[in-house]
Specification:
277 residues, 12 strands, 34% helix, globular, binds adenosine-5'-triphosphate
Length: 277
């Protein structure tokens, strides 16, 4: 695989990921229902993710993986049920009489700020320089002074191997470099939760390794809770504490990566893995 010369060497992947953290959950999905029109995509889905845990969601196309991330990012409305972050409701709560009520936008945004997402398409602002892309949310959402935001952005660009490209426009960068900027941009908000949705799927194969290298660094050197949707099964195996296999909006099977990838129990998981591995 071609290495980007600007990208510093990344450490070798850990042989086996550390034991999954437990304790107070960072994320709780409680009886989550998502419908698009009359079609129910998630049906009373329940799961927890611990603080610092990295969970990969796998499953066939249409099984609801992206919808789960988009609900957490509040890009989709929750049809029913509750999502909690550190015990606090994200978009809906029960009022004193037990009725489900939507939270006010201000309350939603307070928690939502703690969540970052990187998409398949990098979605950088084409009219801003690379460093301005990374500074934008810290300045406008967190209210950080510009110089502080710039220093933070520069540090992150250094971290993703693009420290000397800050003044360029994103369109001059390769897809892999743009995706590394998008990762820096998500990290600039110092999220407690990072959602990664097929972040290498739009890249030429030779650019995938550098982006995964950056994410490996993040996984190994921070305690950010991560939810990943990826087709990079070796990467998922290396960095995840847990893998959840979805089909039809339900969890078919979950377990540590070695078990799911090496010794899946459910026929549906075996069939899916046969098709993708
Ligand atoms: N905005 C929308 N309107 C209508 N249906 C939608 C919408 N977004 C998603 N869906 C449907 O919801 C289901 C779950 O989609 P989702 O993207 O979450 O699946 P996925 O597991 O991430 O699939 P993929 O691996 O192909 O990205 C699919 O049947 C999809 O067609």
């Amino acid at each position: 695989m071609t290495k980007d010369p600007e990208r510093p060497a990344v450490p070798e992947p850990a042989k086996s990921p550390p034991a999954a953290p437990n304790g107070q959950p960072r994320i709780v999905f409680e009886d989550v229902v998502k419908r698009f029109g009359k079609v129910s995509v998630l049906n009373e889905l329940n799961f927890n993710v611990a603080k610092g845990e990295r969970v990969t969601l796998i499953g066939p196309s249409g099984s609801g993986k992206t919808t789960i991330l988009r609900l957490l990012m509040t890009l989709e409305d929750l049809s029913d049920g509750y999502i909690f972050v550190d015990g606090e409701p994200l978009t809906h709560a029960k009022n004193a009489s037990g009725k489900r009520v939507a939270l006010k936008p201000k309350e939603v945004s307070r928690i939502r700020k703690r969540i970052g997402m990187v998409f398949q398409q990098f979605n950088l602002f084409p009219n801003m320089s690379v460093i301005e892309n990374v500074m934008e949310a810290p300045v406008h959402v967190l209210g950080l002074p510009k110089e502080e935001a710039r220093a933070r952005a520069q540090g992150l660009l250094d971290q993703v191997g693009l420290g000397n490209r800050g003044d360029e426009h994103p369109t001059r960068l390769s897809g892999g470099q743009q995706q590394r900027v998008a990762i820096a941009r998500a990290l600039a908000m110092e999220p407690e939760i990072l959602l990664l949705d097929e972040v290498t799927s739009a890249l030429d194969p030779e650019l995938v390794g550098d982006v995964l290298g950056v994410l490996r660094d993040v996984a190994e050197n921070t305690d950010i809770t991560m939810l990943l949707v990826t087709h990079e099964m070796q990467f998922a195996r290396d960095v995840s504490h847990r893998v959840m296999m979805f089909d039809g909006g339900r969890i078919v099977e979950e377990g540590v990566p070695d078990q799911i990838f090496g010794n899946p129990r459910e026929e549906r998981t075996k069939k899916f893995l046969r098709a993708v591995l």
